[in-house]
Amino acid sequence: MREQGYRFHEDNDDQTLTEPYTPPDPKAEVHLHWLEQRLGPLPMVLLSWIRIVGDVWLVGTHPQIR
After folding, report:
1. Does residue 6 form part of some domain?
2. Do the Cβ atoms of 60 and 7 come closer than 8 Å?
3. Are 20 and 8 in contact (CB under 8 A)?
4. Distance CA 10, CA 52 (A)
5. Fewest CB within 10 angstroms: 7, 28, 29, 32, which?
6. CA torsion through residues 36, 42, 47, 50, sign
7. CA distance 60 to 15
8. What's the pLDDT tens digit per position in 31-60?
9. Residue 66 domain-assigned?
């Protein structure tokens, strides 16, 4: 998408540039344990997303809309 001019940015007035993808880090399991302690059993899709995918950020601006 960047090749087409799309700019990934934070959702703020400055539109601070950001990375659209962050892989999971070692703290993912700690975070899941924390969630399970407070919420009980979590759906498998949520467990898989946090363990395998990480974080995806799709806020941005298309070049034709600037």
Report:
1. yes
2. yes
3. yes
4. 23
5. 29
6. negative
7. 8
8. 999 999 999 999 999 999 999 999 999 999
9. no
**Residue 15 belongs to domain spanning:** 2-61
Amino acid at 66: R
d(CA 30, CA 52): 14
**Number of CB atoms found within 10 A of residue 7's CB:** 15
- Is residue 12 within 8 A of residue 57, CB to CB? The reply is no
In whole angstroms, give the CA distance from residue 20 to residue 2: 10
Does residue 5 surpass a pLDDT of 70? Answer: yes
Is residue 13 one of the residues assigned to a domain?
yes
Q: Is the pTM of this model over 0.85?
A: no
Q: Is residue 56 part of a domain?
A: yes
User: Does the pLDDT of residue 10 top 60, yes or no?
Assistant: yes
Domain count, the chain: 1
